Amino acid sequence: MPARAQQPLGEADTPGAILVAVASGRRFAIPAVAVREVTRLPRLTPVPQAPAGLLGLGSFRGEVLAVLAPGDAVKASAALVLAGDARAVLAVDRVERLERSGTAAQVDPLDLAAFLRDALPERPATRRGAATRQDGEAQAEAASTVSLLCFAVAGQSFAMDLQDVEAVFALPQDLAPLPGSREAVLGTCQHQDALLGVLSLARLLDLPASAKARPMVVVVRVGTHRAGLVVERLTGVLRIAADRIDPVPAALAQGGANNGAETRIRAIARPATGPLVSLLAPDALLDDALTAQRASTVGTERQASAQVAEATRPHLLFRIGVHRLAFPLGAVERVVLPPRRLTPLPGARASVLGLATIAGSLVPLVDQSLRLTGEPAAGRERRVVVVRLGDGPGAWTAGFLVDGVIGIRAVADSALSPAPVPEDLAQGVLGGVLRLDGDAPVLVLTPEVLLDRVEADLVARRQDAA
Q: What local confidence, expressed as pLDDT, does residue 325 receive?
C-alpha cells in the first residue's frame, strides 16, 4: 500500500482489523482503529538530545506531532498518524496490508500503549519552569519597558517598536521586479502564502545604500496593510525603560529641507550604554509608499486583516547546530556580538563560559550549542541572546551563545502548543513548539528553565568554593 497525501483505511473500522506495516525489516501489527491516517512523512524538525526512537517533530494537518520509530533505525517514507490524544506518529518504511482478522502470520504485534509510554512519556499541557510572576507583575513590567528591533541604515542606528514588527528574514534573491515602479519599491516576494511588497528603507529615508550591507527584510504592519522594509543589517533587540524614550526635539519634528529621515522619526531612545537610537514610525514611512506598494500585495490585505483579528506573540528564531529554535521575544533583552573578554568561573560546567560585560552589567555567558549538542558554537554568525526574567533586585539575566540568529516571527496563539516530547528531555528546556506556515515546526526554549539551570550551576560553584 503506497503512502499518499491521505490514505483511507477502507475496512479499518471492522472489529479486530489490523494494519501490517514494515519498519527496519520487521513486520508488525497494530489495531487499525488506532490509526487516524496514513500519509507521507513530512520534513522533520530534529529534537536536541532526542533518544533514538524519536526521529523529530512534523506538521500533520496543522498539528505538530512527535514522529517515533518502532524499529532501531528507520529509513521511513510513510507515517501512521495515531488516533486519540497521543500526539504521535509512527514512521515506517511502508504499510503492507489491512487484514480483517486480528491475527497475521509472521507478524509481531505491537503493544502500542507500552510503546508510547516508553517513547513519549505523558507530559502536562501546562508549561514547566520556575515559579512565574503573577499577571499583575508581568503587566507592570511590560508597561515600564519597551522592546525595540534595532538595525542600521546608511551607517545610522534606527529601531522600531517590536509591536509593529510581524517578521524578519533574509532578503530573498528571487524578488520579482515591478517595471515602472518608484525607486524605493524593490519588488515582491512570497511570504506566508501571500505576496509581499518589498521596499528599500534607505530610499524611503533619502539615505544612500551601503555597499557592505547584509540585507534583511523587516515586515511591518499598518492597519491591514503589510510591507517589507529592507535594512542593511540587524544590530539586535533592545529592551529599554519607557522613561528613556523621549519625544523628537521640536527642531527635528518640523522637518528639514529635504523632508528626509528626520520627518519619519517617532522618538529618540537613550540606552544606558551606546549611541542614541532613532525610533521610526511605520505609518509615516508607508504613507508615501502605500499606493506603489498596493500593486505588489494582491490578497495580502485580507490575510493581514485575519492575522490582526487573532492575538500574536513574537518569537526570536535562532540556530544551534542543525536545530532551529526560538525564544519568546518578551524574555529577550538584547542580541549582541560575542564579547572579546570573559572572566572565567572556576568549577562551572564547560558550557558556562564565564562572566561577560554586556551593556555595563556582568552576566554569565552560556554556550547553548555546547550544552544541547555537545559541539561549541562556531562561525562568524555567532550571537549572544541576552535573556532576562523579572525586574528589580530579583531580576536574573544570562547570555546564551548561539550559532546564528535567523529572524523574528510573530505567530498566532493557536500556532503555539506544548512540545510533544518527554518532560525531562534536554534538561526540561523544551517548552513549546511553533507551527509555521509552509515550514518545519520550531521548538521553543523555556527561558525560566534555562535561567534556573544557569543559576544552579553558579550556586553549585559558589558552594564548592566555600
A: 93
User: Which parts of the chain register pLDDT below 50?
Assistant: 1-12, 125-141, 256-259, 288, 291-309, 463, 465-466
Indicate whether 7 belongs to any domain: no
Q: Is the dihedral of CA 257, 261, 262, 265 positive or negative?
A: positive
Query: Is 8 domain-assigned?
Result: no
* Cell numbers found for residue 330: 518578551
Judgement on whether residues 317 and 305 belong to the same structural domain of the protein: no
Sequential DSSP letters for 107-131: -EE--HHHHHHHHS----SS--SSP
Selection from 58, 82, 61 nearest residue 70 by Cα: 82
Residue type, 354: G
Report how far residue 196's alpha carbon sits from residue 191's, in angstroms, rounded to the nearest whole number: 6
**How big is the CA angle at 62 (ends 56 and 63), to the nearest 5 degrees?**
50
82 and 36 Cβ atoms separated by less than 8 Å:
yes
Give the domain range for residue 377: 312-465
Cβ neighbours of residue 33 under 8 Å, at least 6 residues apart? Answer: 12, 13, 17, 83
**Kind and range of the H or E element at 283?**
helix 282-294
* Entry pTM: 0.70
DSSP annotation of 407 reads E
CATH number at residue 165: 2.40.50.180
Q: What is the mean pLDDT of the chain?
A: 77
Q: Are residues 59 and 164 in the same domain?
A: no
What are the cell numbers at 446?
Answer: 523555556
What DSSP state is assigned to residue 132? P
Residues 299, 336, single domain; the answer is no
Residues 95 and 82 in one domain: yes
Q: Does one domain contain both 153 and 299?
A: yes
Examine the domain organization and report whether 268 and 366 are in the same domain: no
- Considering the domain architecture, whether residues 266 and 170 belong to the same structural domain is answered as yes
Of 79, 94, 78, 99, nearest to 32 (Cα)? 99
3-state secondary structure of 438: coil
Tens digit of pLDDT for each residue in 309-342? Answer: 456 788 899 999 889 999 988 888 888 889 989 9
